[in-house]
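Reviewer 2 asked us to include a model.

Predict the structure of this chain.
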Amino acid sequence: MVRVVGENINPGIYNIREALNMAEAQGLDLVEISPTANPPVCKVIDYKKFLYELKKKQKEMKAKTAKIVVKEIRLGPNTDEHDFNFKLNHAIKFLKEGAKVKVDVFFKGRSIIYKEQGELILLKFAQAVTEVGKIEQMPRLEGKRMIMIIAPKK
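Predicted model (structure tokens):
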């Protein structure tokens, strides 16, 4: 026994064979919608059209989700003023476009002894982009890199 619903059908509880005959008479399919209900719910619809609508809805949902882009900018512990400003302008452009910016200071060889200098550069960088972005993750050391993530302001 199943509960049958659909267009041009009297909703009610029918035998499975009866429900199939009703669907066949209209040239449609009998699709189980809620198998956990008591009795299970079936709907008389065109199955191919049903699948098409389902795919269409999923595509719309996927298109509506925001895609987060993360741009990466790499600095050194001894980056000079001109390079710093050049990369800062790129970061500001990325933040205005709505992308997150991952700024990292890469320590080569023995330059790891300048950790404080690297952190100062990152904090100076964050200070310079405060009008368009906010710090999402404070500078932290991961191996030979010190990483900070800046998100755009809404």
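The mean pLDDT is 87. Residues 70-152 form a domain with the Translation Initiation Factor IF3 fold (CATH 3.30.110.10). We have added this to the supplementary material.
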